[in-house]
Amino acid sequence: MSAPRSGIAPDTDKILAQAESAIGRIVAAREAVAEIIYGQEQVVERSLVTVLAGGHGLLVGVPGLAKTKLVEALGTVLGLSERRIQFTPDLMPSDILGSEVLEQAPDGSRAFRFIRGPIFAQLLMADEINRASPRTQSALLQAMQERHVTVAGQRYDLPAPFHVLATQNPLEQEGTYPLPEAQLDRFLLQIDVHYPDREAERRILLATTGVTEATPRKVFDAAELLELQQLVRRVPVGGSVVEAILDLVRAARPGSATGKHAKSIAWGPGPRASQALMLTVRARALAQGRLAPSIDDVKALAEPVLQHRMALTFAARADGVTIRDVIRDLTDGIG
Question: Example GO molecular function term (predicted)?
């Protein structure tokens, strides 16, 4: 028997029935976070899509745009244990992973006991990840990939689900250690956090400077989220969407690039970008109340999936070409 085509499982009707029952709660979760985070609907949606797809996200924005509050709200709404680590140049891997301490029992015997670090949380905020040394960054990113840590030769599994939402400040680059490209590739999405518009900022002023503030409400628990993540992987994807993903990712690579900026690409995304799009378009469809993704989902997620997985040539950068220009050109060519 041949394998199912286009990722469509044989029990499609059953999957669609499960998706229909889950859509209402996913939309409720998105709305619950939006009640706390004003004027950042796209950021909320992409953060939720990242978690539903089972991945990690990189939030990029200037200070004061509620990135920390977003992670706290997500933790509450999704029923996850949430921790925050402020990355600094003197932070050591053991400060994140944990360490062994020597303890003496009443009978005089001694033994090592492992004290778990803050990474043992279901939703971890790595604040200003680029301020830590490469050694500390690597310890976190290895745990993100392998979902466990090893201390003194002993393996310790991380909780399930496990997600990291890291932040970067795009302005202050003094004293920072930018993430290498291979480590950036571990993030499912790069989520750009922009300034709110005037109406949203007015709402922020009125809602956050009074006697009381809105608090997030729980919609899911960890077990339900794990079930949803498995459901996302079973959502049917049409052949046209699969082809659009392949066309987009392959067109973003030097040698096979197309469009007016084809010669501007120094290096492009690998297969992990295709995998990221395949998962996130499914999650976005459910988050918007739809049972299957479309080519519009591919176009909407092209930038957050590709922008941290590409680099431009020096000549292109000298001419003022940006990654966004290139991705916009590529998305115009699909569908």
Answer: ATP binding
